[in-house]
């Protein structure tokens, strides 16, 4: 079953075209890894899926809802799609627990006790239940990103988008975040992950998407695209990444 | 310049020792002096109450004017600009006179001196509050809005729980400035007869004819009030900072 369908999507920033006629179908439960050089439109692609960016041409259907500016549709989409950002974007004035409870309480209408119980279970899942009463700035980058993942999970999304979740982290903290994501991948949630962590891609991805210049240049199962890249651009890109 | 200052202060000191000065009017050790001082200090009530009431109102109005200024819609932004430009162009004294004498003629609504003063001060200050809030809210990173959107918070909750608590921490020093400014501007309300600090001092000057001594005490009264406000704002800043470190 297709849960995300993008048909000939184009996105412009002024005169600059960041997405050029992009089409992509993602099945429910699928794990897609998106890679490509900086500025190739990866962030724009996934930000169009939860409409942090509005596309100008083409059609995007998420879980049966066609993306428009209608507020009711927006609510539905944002309830279905969660997002994890490169810079975590935790709320700095709230504790970890308050960061996690805000959405469930205000949006899902959970009671205080229900929200806290749910938050705690997700903190355990990302292995930092003991940090619940700290403020974000008191945590390491890896811990902050795990809190951000837990915050998304508290909304029980069907789709989770990750925009370079480990790019802002010190090397020693990357693994703890990838481990949490790998565990998540085994639960059947649909994941689209923008990352250059090729080890993670090989282990977890059902499909790899390679973008360049606002286009999807190559797409396929990791074992196929890694061993036999069809495009020269992707072959060069992998070589650069792996030598890095 | 330096020499002039030394000479001037020496002159003031010397003349203070001479009989040209009449500190007895405000000398707490004498009976008249004590009564006069109490009379002057009793004006603090209206100065404080009026400034606090006015700043509360102007913060709320300022926020309500600031929000449309951040809209993507041109019409809303126009409303914000028009309000700010017009309101801050009117001198406070003129606004006080207009509210007190003009409003009844225009609308039939008559306000007593206290509320006329509060309204004029709050109105005038709200334009500045609107600018402070707009800048404060604009200083919050876009990622905070995006994170709020990604957990489906609506506009009101995003503002209330995510953006404003952070913005208010940032603009607290500016809000403190406005309160200090408001306390000083409240002296202008004396012209319509409110019994605040400046009015009390003026009345005493009329009966005692010792303007220099009485206005010096008046200056000290404002100084003390404002130092207290500054200390209070700094305390609040430290507390808010402490609560999220
Ligand atoms: N808000 C924006 N305004 C103008 N240009 C933008 C904006 N966001 C992205 N872009 C441009 O769109 C292109 C794609 O950006 P992005 O999707 O962030 O790339 P990637 O995530 O692959 O590095 C870049 O050239 C970037 O400069
Ligand atoms: Mg990006």
List keywords for this structure.
heterodimer; A: 244 residues; alpha/beta; 6-stranded mixed sheet; 4-stranded antiparallel sheet; 9 helices; 39% helix; B: 245 residues; mainly alpha; MetI-like fold; 10 helices; binds adenosine-5'-diphosphate; binds magnesium ion
Describe the structure.
The complex is a heterodimer of chains A (244) and B (245). Chain A has 244 residues and is α/β, with parallel strands linked by helices. In chain A, strand 4 and strand 5 form a beta hairpin. The longest helix of chain A has 15 residues. Chain A is globular, with a radius of gyration of 18 Å. The model of chain A has no long low-confidence stretch (mean pLDDT 94). Chain B has one domain: MetI-like fold. Chain B is 80% helix and 0% strand. Chain B has 10 helices and no strands. The longest helix of chain B is centred in the C-terminal third of the chain and has 33 residues. The mean pLDDT of chain B is 90. Chains A and B meet through helix 2, strand 6, helix 3 and helix 5 of A and helix 7 and helix 8 of B. Adenosine-5'-diphosphate binds next to strand 2 and helix 1 of chain A.
């Amino acid at each position: 079953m297709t849960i995300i369908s993008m048909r000939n999507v184009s996105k412009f920033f002024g005169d600059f075209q960041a997405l050029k006629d992009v089409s992509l179908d993602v099945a429910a439960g699928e794990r897609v890894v998106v890679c490509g050089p900086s500025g190739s439109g990866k962030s724009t692609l996934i930000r169009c899926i939860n409409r942090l960016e509005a596309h100008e041409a083409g059609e995007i259907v998420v879980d049966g809802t066609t993306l428009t500016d209608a507020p009711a549709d927006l609510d539905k989409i944002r309830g279905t799609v969660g997002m994890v950002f490169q810079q975590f974007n935790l709320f700095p004035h709230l504790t970890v627990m308050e960061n996690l409870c805000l959405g469930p309480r205000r949006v899902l209408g959970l009671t205080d006790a229900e929200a806290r119980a749910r938050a705690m279970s997700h903190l355990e899942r990302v292995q930092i239940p003991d940090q619940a009463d700290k403020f974000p700035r008191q945590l390491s980058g890896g811990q902050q990103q795990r809190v951000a993942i837990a915050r998304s999970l508290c909304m029980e999304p069907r789709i989770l988008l990750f925009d370079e979740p480990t790019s802002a982290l010190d090397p020693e903290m990357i693994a703890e975040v990838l481990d949490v994501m790998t565990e998540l991948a085994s639960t059947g949630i649909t994941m689209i992950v923008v990352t250059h962590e090729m080890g993670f891609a090989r282990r977890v991805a059902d499909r790899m998407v390679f973008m360049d210049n606002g286009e999807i240049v190559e797409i396929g199962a990791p074992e196929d695209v890694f061993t036999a890249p069809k495009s020269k651009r992707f072959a060069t890109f992998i070589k650069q990444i792996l030598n890095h | 310049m330096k020499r002039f200052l030394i000479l001037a202060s020496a002159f003031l000191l010397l003349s203070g020792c001479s009989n040209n000065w009449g500190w007895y009017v405000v000398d707490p050790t004498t009976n008249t002096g004590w009564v006069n001082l109490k009379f002057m200090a009793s004006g603090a009530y209206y100065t404080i109450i009026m400034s606090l009431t006015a700043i509360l109102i102007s913060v709320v109005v300022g926020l309500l004017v600031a929000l449309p200024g951040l809209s993507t819609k041109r019409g809303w932004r126009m409303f914000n600009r028009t309000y700010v430009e017009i309101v801050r162009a009117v001198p406070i004294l003129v606004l006080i006179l207009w509210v007190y004498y003009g409003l009844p003629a225009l609308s039939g609504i008559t306000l007593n001196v206290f509320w006329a003063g509060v309204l004029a001060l709050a109105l005038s200050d709200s334009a500045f509050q609107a600018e402070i809030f707009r800048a404060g809210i604009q200083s919050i990173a876009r990622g905070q809005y995006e994170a709020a959107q990604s957990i489906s918070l609506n506009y009101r909750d995003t503002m209330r729980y995510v953006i404003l608590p952070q913005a208010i921490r940032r603009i607290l020093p500016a809000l403190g400035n406005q309160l200090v400014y408001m306390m000083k501007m409240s002296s202008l309300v004396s012209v319509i007869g409110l019994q605040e600090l400046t009015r009390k001092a003026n009345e005493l000057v009329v009966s005692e004819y010792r303007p220099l001594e009485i206005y010096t005490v008046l200056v000290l009264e404002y100084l003390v009030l404002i130092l207290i406000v500054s200390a209070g704002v700094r305390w609040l800043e430290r507390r808010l900072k402490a609560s999220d470190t």
